[in-house]
Amino acid sequence: MIEDQGLDGVDLKILSELQKDGRIRNNELASRVGISPPPCLRRVRSLLRRGVIRAIRATLDERHLGYEVISFVSIQLKRQTPAAIDAFEAAIMAEPRVQQCWRLSGDTDFLLKCLAPNVEAMHRQLLRFAGMPEVLAIRSFPVLGLSKDEPLPIPEDPPTALPK
After folding, report:
1. Strand partners, 69
2. Is the pLDDT of residue 1 over 60?
3. What is the Rg, in whole angstroms, of the alpha carbon atoms belonging to the chain?
4. CB burial class (10 A; 0-12, 13-18, 19+) of residue 15?
5. Contact residues for 140 (Cβ-Cβ < 8 A; gap 6+)
6. How much of the chain is helix, strand and coil, in % rounded to 5?
7. How confident is the model over 52-93, as pLDDT tens digits?
8. How confident is the model at residue 6, as a pLDDT?
9. CA–CA distance, 120 with 123 (Å, rounded to integer)
10. How far apart are CA 113 and CA 115, in angstroms?
11. Please, what's the b/e burial string for 68-99 (b: 16 or more CB within 10 A of its CB; e: otherwise)?
12. Contact between 125 and 95 (Cβ < 8 Å)
């Protein structure tokens, strides 16, 4: 694998195995993808350096950490100017219980995944969002349960080019 050539079949196998078990030891990973450990480690490090692998981390159960309420919150800004978007994103970065923030097109400008220990705490969080000067409207979608949570599908053939 040459860094400028994107991904090859071995890289795709590595990515697939790491999504199944991010704690897999390099020797086992190398064995599963059919290469020796030193080039396997080089490939994993290259995939990390190039941003193909964004992070290797544990996925935690929110309830075990006291977050009983999960809600998706749609945010519509008053204006979609770069300054308004930047100000809103900066404010959201300071919100520790906003787990994800997605910028969208259409009627909703942002979709947030928010956590709270209880309904009252979620209500207070929503009031903070509503009080932000850039925010025009909010809608909250409380989560009742998770039906599917799968890793990214790995293509059978390598993509022709990686995003820059």
Report:
1. 116
2. no
3. 20
4. buried
5. 71, 72, 73, 122, 126
6. 40, 20, 45
7. 999 998 889 999 999 999 999 999 999 999 999 999 999 999
8. 83
9. 5
10. 7
11. ebbbebbbbbeeeeeebbeebeebbeeeebbe
12. yes
- Phi, psi of 112, deg, nearest 5: -110, 145
CA-to-CA separations, 98 to 4, 65, 72, 79, 128, in angstroms, rounded: 35, 15, 10, 22, 12
Task: Give the architecture-level CATH label for domain 3-49.
Answer: Orthogonal Bundle (1.10)
Tell me the pTM: 0.82
* The architecture CATH gives domain 62-142: 2-Layer Sandwich (3.30)
Contact 140, 126 (CB under 8 A): yes
Domain ranges of the chain: 3-49, 62-142
**What is the predicted pLDDT for the residue at 118?**
97
Residue type (1 letter), 70: I
Exposed, middle or buried, 62 (CB in 10 Å: 0-12/13-18/19+)?
middle
**Token digits of residue 76:** 């519509």
